[in-house]
């Protein structure tokens, strides 16, 4: 096990092999798919934020292509663009909000990473003005697949909010928004689709 710490209570560990000189990290399990599942793409941040609205400074003026200055290596994302709220470091705050859309499929899949701070660094599914899901990172720079079950919201108006009001260690969140799908696929990440 390799432990990396940037201060009290701000650590991360990796499992792998160490030969006395070189540490080789274990590969992530196969469930962390390397390609977009079939479905309808909601957003992928490959060509800017498009019709999403950014406020504050955390998300910058455009998606990141991976790690930002002074950030640990970011991995596990698909494509070239991610919504990364580390623009300006952990103290920066802001929000990235999708346009309204109608929920037409049973699941929304996305990849997420970043700080584990449900109250201040999260992604929210807002349906008819009410928050139905709030998801956060795992204090990890690796983006993992997650899925929201939207079967009970079919035909309803929705919006996605990515919020960063955290200013301390791991006070950031990153996502790639993926797709909406009719069939559930377990996992976690930062692009959106259904």
Describe the structure.
It is a single chain. This protein is an all-beta fold and 194 residues long. It has one domain (33-193): Jelly Rolls. The protein has strands at 2-5, 11-14, 16-18, 23-25, 40-43, 53-56, 83-84, 94-97, 101-102, 107-114, 121-127, 130-135, 140-149, 157-164, 173-181, 191-193. Strands 5, 7, 10, 13, 15 and 16 form a 6-stranded mixed beta sheet that branches. Strands 6, 8, 9, 11, 12 and 14 form a 6-stranded antiparallel beta sheet that branches. A two-stranded antiparallel ribbon has the order 1-2. The relative contact order is 0.26. The model is unreliable at 29-33 and 181-194 (pLDDT under 50).
Short description:
This protein is mostly beta strands and 194 residues long. The protein has no helices and 16 strands.
Main features:
6-stranded mixed β-sheet, disordered C terminus, 194 residues, Jelly Rolls, 0% helix, 16 strands, mainly beta
CATH architectural grouping: Sandwich
- Residue-averaged pLDDT, rounded? 78
What general outline do the C-alpha atoms trace? globular
Q: CATH topology, what is it called? A: Jelly Rolls
% residues in beta strands: 35-45%
- Count all strands and give the number: 16
Largest sheet features: 6 strands, mixed
Class derived from helix and strand content: mainly beta
**Total domain modules:** 1
CATH class: Mainly Beta
Radius of gyration: 16 Å
Q: Low-confidence parts lasting 5 or more residues at pLDDT below 50?
A: 29-33, 181-194
Count of DSSP H/I helices: 0
Distance between the termini: 37 Å
| Element pattern in H and E | EEEEEEEEEEEEEEEE
Q: Indicate the percent of residues in helices.
A: under 10%
């Amino acid at each position: 096990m390799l432990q990396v710490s940037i201060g009290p209570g701000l650590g991360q560990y990796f499992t792998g092999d160490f030969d006395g000189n070189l540490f080789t990290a274990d590969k992530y399990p196969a469930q962390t798919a390397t390609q977009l599942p079939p479905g309808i793409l909601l957003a992928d941040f490959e060509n800017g934020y498009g019709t999403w609205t950014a406020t504050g400074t955390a998300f910058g003026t455009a998606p990141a292509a991976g790690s930002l200055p002074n950030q640990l290596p970011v991995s596990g994302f698909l494509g070239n663009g991610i919504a990364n709220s580390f623009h300006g470091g952990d103290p920066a705050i802001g929000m990235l909000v999708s346009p309204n859309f109608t929920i037409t499929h049973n699941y929304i899949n996305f990849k997420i990473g970043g700080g584990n701070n449900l109250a201040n660094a999260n992604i929210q599914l807002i349906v008819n003005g009410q928050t139905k899901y709030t998801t956060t990172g795992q204090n990890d720079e690796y983006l993992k697949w997650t899925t929201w079950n939207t079967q009970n919201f079919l035909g309803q108006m929705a919006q996605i909010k990515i919020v960063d009001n955290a200013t301390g260690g791991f006070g950031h969140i990153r996502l790639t928004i993926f797709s909406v799908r009719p069939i559930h696929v377990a996992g976690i990440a930062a692009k959106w689709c259904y």
